[in-house]
Amino acid sequence: MDRNDLLAATRTEFVRGYTAILDELLNESMARLFERAEHAGSMQQQGLYFDARTVLMTRSVQIRQQLSAALQPLLNRSFQTAYSTFRPSFAEQVSKKTTLSLVSTDVIDDEMWVDGVTKRLRDEADEQLRDLNIRMALLFEQETISERENPFRPYLLAKCLSSAAEGLDLSKEIENVLTEALANELVKRVSQIYAAVNGLLAQHGIAAELSLRIVRQAPASPTPMLAAPELPIEPTAETPLAEADMTGMPRYPEHGASAPAPAWSAAAPSTSHPTAPAGRVEDRLLQLVRQPQQAGASALGNMQDHWQSASQHAGGVPGAGMSTGAASASPSDSAPKSGWRSWLEGPRKAGQVLRQLFSGAPAMEEAGSGEPVRSFQPSSNSVLTHSIDSLMRTATPQTVDMHDDQGQLRNLILEHRETLSDQVEEENEQMTIDIVAMLFEFILRDQNVPAEVRAQLGRLQFLVLKVALMDPSLLTQKSHPARMLVNRIGSISLGLQQIDPTGERVAGEICHIVETLLSSDIEGSALFGTMLDELDAFIARELRSNEPHVDSALAAVAQAESRTLQFARITAMIGEALQGVTIDLYLQEFLLNHWARAIEVAGRTDATRARRFREAIPQLIWSIVPKVTEADRAALTAMLPKLIGTLRDGMLLSKSSKADLEQLMAWLFDSHKLALRSAVPASMCPPLSFFQQRFQHFIEQGEPLQVITSDRSVTPDRKLLEEAMSELETQLNLIDQLFEDELADEAGLSDADFSNAEVEQEELGPYAQLRSGVAVEVNLDGNPTLALLSWSDPTVPRMVLQMQHSEAPSIISVRLFIRLLKSGRARFLEDRPIFERAIESLLDSADQLDRTPLAA
After folding, report:
1. Is 379 a residue whose pLDDT tops 80?
2. Does residue 801 carry a pLDDT above 60?
3. In whole angstroms, what is the distance from residue 799 CA to residue 770 CA?
4. Which of 280, 595, 610, 697 would staple 342 via disulfide (CB 3.0–4.6 Å)?
5. What is the sign, positive or negative, of the torsion defined by CA atoms of 342, 346, 350, 351?
6. Alpha helices of 395-548 — where are they, by DSSP H?
7. Which residues of 287-319 are buried (b: 16+ CB within 10 A; e: fewer)?
8. What local confidence, expressed as pLDDT, does residue 7 receive?
9. Is 826 helix (H, G, I), strand (E, B) or coil?
10. Strand 810-813, strand 733-734: pairing
11. 369 CB-contact burial (10 Å; exposed 0-12 / middle 13-18 / buried 19+)
12. If you count DSSP H runs as helices and E runs as strands, how many of each does the chain have, helices first?
């Protein structure tokens, strides 16, 4: 193939590979932005992530077009300058100007960002990009191999992201978040773009052959000194150290000239597991838990090095040489009394012991082992309790002092573990101290919760420890008031922006609750329950104040539900009276729909009118029965004017359409004409008294109820709901109406089963999170939308959803919301409460320790 044709085909393949990943790029970016919002360190960061995600969701087509269109001019320019002497330089541009102007710092920041992304793309596609650089040099018949001369270099892709984002007219903050998210996903996929281009060139005989390859090697033995080694690479024509690009910025060495990895770079991971240092099991677990920056085997490896180093500085005593500062206190420094063995010691693994403890199963002896299976036991150690009270007063810092010198939140229990251990009388007490300390270690660095909220929770460490010693059910039962309060504070922090955009009022309320708990003399967990109720009431007030239309919307729904129930009651009583009577199908439909609605409307304000409408039913039915006697004909003739007037009155009152009224009048005319002409035996024609007797109960007992109640939520009739909304001058979205068919076929859980007032949280299981202020994501129409849950009434299984970017409140039944949860169309932003996440993380750490062999 001709060189130009091959270059054109290569360009086509490059563009095809780039555009092929755009849809996946956008979708994955949306998902990653949502995850980053969940782990944001502040409400401002969380808001930026959500705003950037909203841009991707609502303008994905435009963004895709921008990303695709931005590549073409860059490619054109790149082909013009590839291995060309035409290079605009800074000096040439200055010589053409008579004046100089300042360059915006935003322009410089953008160029620096593009350079940074270019480097990331280059590093990710290292081998593929190096091969493509060689092939481009061969195609252009050049001896110098340079990425700068490659018309498909990573710079183009990075510049595409920047140019596309600029065309969206976003704020700089959102633009930065958006482009960074897109760049992260592009880095993951850049190799496949270059692999496809290389594959095409290889098929046409363009081989990637390089005469010089520099092999990166790690040194044979670890080098303890952190000094950079001498680099033996000298710049040559084929391996330039740096070149100037169009911006005048120095560029990185090309891939063929990359310097070897420094001697202090990490060696390849070993296939064998690292060994953990010998020592008390709980101390090793504590040390593993306090490795927030490490994961898996590397944490254990670092832990072993840390212990070995400490032993060398302290005469071989593990932990003796560690820092005794508050922020880095070692578990070994405050080891429990030597008269006991480790509470994790024994044949059972640490993970098994902890799972047994958290399950709340009673203590017993494990069959055949002679080893006790431990359980949490209440403590009666008044000395230890007094010590904790003293620490609460003197060692609980203010919020501003909750961070250590490294900016990390302080684990107060670990800082004072030695003091607490000196007061311990039983092994069970030391076990509780250690476990609560480890749980707070995870809570304090849980990135799902803003740092300011975690700092407030951290001030409760001694109080939670005291309650756990007195009432161990805090560690075994999710429904314990103290545990529920910690979880509730963590949960509402995800929805802070919608509850309180500034965060000040919610933060103030949390601070008030913490201060109340710390200053109170009330023993036990009762005060936690009181504070939980107070927090729920506060959240409910804040949600209502932020959404002034909620009350009127709820009133409209309640009114529509009451009227729907009354309408259903009237319909049922009419149907019951008609049992065994065969009537015209049109008349039956008219009575059960139009006329029942007219009776319900009249009954709201005029009982006499409603009774007249009920009395008209037996008259209407008898009027179409064949009239074979002169007396019956005369009675019909006398009855018709009043009956037709009553029917017109009812149709107009229920706001039936003109067409419906005309259809009724036409049907009456035909039916009465037929009744007067029919010739049937008189014995087959029931008298008026027959029908009046059948409807007697309905006529006498048909007054509307003052209070309509039901054991389950009723989806309001659409027409009645619209009528109530019009009367109250409000707007709302009734989500259940979108799923009427699904709800009608449902034979599963009823709303009453999930009434917050009747079902305990333990029985609700995963649905215990259905509380006011909890953040959720709901997908009703294919577009996930953020929302806050708000109970309208704890005794009614119905909630208000405050949807993002929607002024009108949305009403949803608990039954439907649970269906959406089960089908994956709704989810909690917080999959598990913070206390439960801490327990699971501790169990994972224990399992990690169990898989690690001890050092000899």
Report:
1. yes
2. yes
3. 9
4. 280
5. negative
6. 412-415, 417-422, 427-444, 451-458, 461-470, 481-492, 496-499, 504-519, 526-546
7. bbbbbeeeeebebbbbbbebbeebbeeeeeebb
8. 86
9. strand
10. parallel
11. exposed
12. 35, 8
Of 830, 835, 844, the C-alpha closest to 39 is 830
Helix (H, G, I), strand (E, B) or coil at 824: coil
pLDDT tens string 202-216: 888 888 765 444 444
Q: Which residue has the higher pLDDT, 337 or 831?
A: 831
**Contacts of the segment 427-431: beta carbons below 8 A, 24+ positions apart:** 427/336, 427/340, 427/343, 428/343, 428/374, 428/376, 428/377, 428/379, 429/379, 429/381, 429/384, 429/469, 430/336, 430/340, 430/343, 431/282, 431/343, 431/357, 431/374, 431/376
Residue 759 has pLDDT above 70, yes or no: no
Mean pLDDT across the chain, nearest whole number?
Answer: 75
Show the tokens assigned to 119: 């480097």
Q: What is the CA radius of gyration of the chain?
A: 38
∠ at Cα 217 (215, 218), nearest 5°? 165
Evaluate whether 805 touches 812 at the Cβ level (below 8 Å). no
Joined together, the tokens standing for residue 847 give: 């399992």
Provide φ and ψ at 850, rounded to 5°.
-65, -30
Q: What is the pTM of this model?
A: 0.50
Q: With contact defined as beta carbons under 8 Å apart, do 852 and 275 qualify?
A: yes
Tokens for 633, please give them: 């004909």
Q: What is the pLDDT of residue 726?
A: 64
pLDDT tens-digit map of 303-322: 444 434 333 333 333 333 33
Q: Is residue 735 within 8 Å of 553, Cβ to Cβ?
A: no
Average pLDDT of the segment spanning 533-557 = 72
DSSP 271-314: SSPPPBPSS-HHHHHHHHHT-TT--HHHHHHHHHHHHHHHHHHT
Residue type, 378: P
- Which carries the bigger pLDDT value, residue 831 or residue 395? 395
DSSP 3-state of 413: helix
- DSSP for 595-630? IHHHHHHHHHH-HHHHHHHHHHHHHHHHHTS---SH
Alpha helix (H) residue ranges in 21-153: 22-38, 43-58, 60-81, 90-95, 105-124, 126-139
Segment holding 588, helix H or strand E: helix 585-590
**Cα–Cα distance measured from residue 19 to residue 196, given in angstroms and rounded to the nearest whole number:** 13
Alpha helices in 150-295 (DSSP H): 154-166, 172-203, 281-289
Q: Which residue has the tokens 């490896």?
A: 301
- Kindly state the DSSP code that residue 594 receives in the 8-state scheme: I
Torsions phi, psi of 702, nearest 5? -90, 5
Share of the chain above pLDDT 70, in %: 69
Task: Give the separation between CA 20 and CA 653, rounded to whole angstroms.
Answer: 62
Residue 58, amino acid: T
Instruction: Give the number of other Cβ atoms within 10 Å of residue 266's Cβ.
Output: 9
pLDDT at 318: 34
pLDDT in tens, 478-531: 889 999 999 988 888 776 555 555 567 888 889 999 999 999 988 888 899 999
The answer to whether the CB of 724 falls within 8 A of the CB of 660 is: no
Count of C-beta atoms within a 10 Å radius of residue 619: 19
DSSP 3-state assignment of 637?
A: helix
